């Protein structure tokens, strides 16, 4: 299962043009393999956990598709589907060591390109079919197929994965196109059900848009109402429920993702008990809005949880294909026109910290000397004047009939107040911002199609910094790639390629920091803010283990990440009776510092 630590490479399976799969029995395992496993690291669940309950969580918009590849698939809801697709091995969320998943054992080849795996013979798809080594071979065939219309995946599984070797139904090897460190992060691929897809056709995108594909994880979509909700049901006879690291996890019987488009409406639903948890990291929710009866009377509990993980790259992504941002001076001027510090102090009560660049929190892979550009009207003037711009009668910079006026697109109501402050302060510097609020799916679609001027968003993080998909020119000037800034810098490409190909950990750390410096100079990303914690409110009938989360947690109530929380029926009944009689419990606010970063 997906843990709270690394963005998992999703489904995989495919035979490439020149025989990537050895015929069954044609190859034998090499001698001298050292088979490894791990049942030694501490569990992170609670023996008190019980199964049961229905967990209701909001989503801002209905997904555009249930496909995890192809057009419109790379939205936020995709994580819920992918979170129920297991990979060969996983990482322990605290120790970061390899732990079993679909594979019980693994071994590393001497070539540093190959990993060998022994599948758990109990592994089953949700339709009851056995998971076999051939399902991993089919992943390559599937991902390399033009029918799925997923150029990024086709490139990755052609250029990065050389082949899958099937030795028997439960033994396989995955081979990288080159040797590299952290091999398990790349080769722990997920299977794709050949028996479900079979031969792909040209109508793949439309035919599978709303198909529910068999999976290997704890939950499967059981029903949905378009535009309203998606329901996942726990598999009572799930083959992996008794595995060492799965015990007392994935506890709720049913998970309902209900569409509630407005964030304030979500809060209202939560206070009425129509939603089970609510994220209250925003200061106005922690300090003011949660100063309410259900919290004061102890019906709703609060937790402030410090984590120690890679920091989300939240900020403003500038589209370099827009004429106005082709000039680096204007990208720099835009950065200096953003008064992020005022937002932190005025809107966020000083609770947040300035994010300095997109790759903070990766230890020695991060350049912690880099600093985000400060708000500086004088520097804006210098840069704009150097590029031949002058202030117009309305104070906005202009040149040859063009005004420095850009649209900032975003999808989350709660950041509107922040953007309004940025807009007001930018105007003082001569930069006009036009705000465009979209729903989640529409915004992400716009960004992937590169139709934005400026995207206000945040990406998920990975175990190690990844640069190729977000900043290499291979992914610029084309839709449906993650290079939404359209960065096209050949010198940067060269260093990214060296980082990508290096086997030396020390060299990779040096190259990583160099790339971050070059990205800082590219100035296509304006970092905004970060927090080394998150805060949540939840009804008291939901229980948490001790400690309540793991080192890399960013949500204590993620049902598919590890699902260590559980439903307490007796507490639920006790709370409902108390509310009816207006009886109060002691209010509960927990400050959890087990994983608080030192210093």
N→C terminal distance: 33 Å
Shape: globular
Rg measurement, Å? 25 Å
CATH topology of the largest domain: D-Maltodextrin-Binding Protein, domain 2
CATH class of the largest domain: Alpha Beta
Structural domains: how many: 3
Q: By CATH's scheme, which homologous superfamily of the largest domain applies?
A: Periplasmic binding protein-like II
Label the structural class: alpha+beta
Strand percent estimate: 15-25%
Q: In total, how many beta strands?
A: 26
Spatial strand arrangement across the major sheet? 19-18-20-13-21
The portion of residues assigned to helices is 25-40%
Q: Provide the residue-averaged pLDDT.
A: 93
- Largest sheet at a glance? 5 strands, mixed
Work out the helix count: 18
Poorly predicted ranges: 2-25
What is the CATH-assigned architecture of the largest domain?
Answer: 3-Layer(aba) Sandwich
Task: Give a description of the structure.
The strands form 8 sheets. A 5-stranded mixed β-sheet has the order 19-18-20-13-21, with helices on both faces. Strands 1-10-9-8 form a 4-stranded mixed β-sheet, with no helix packed on it. The protein is 25% helix and 20% strand. The protein folds into 3 domains: 1-259, Periplasmic binding protein-like II (D-Maltodextrin-Binding Protein, domain 2); 262-285 and 295-300 and 536-599, no CATH class; 314-530, Dipeptide-binding Protein, Domain 3 (Dipeptide-binding Protein, domain 3). The protein is an alpha+beta fold.
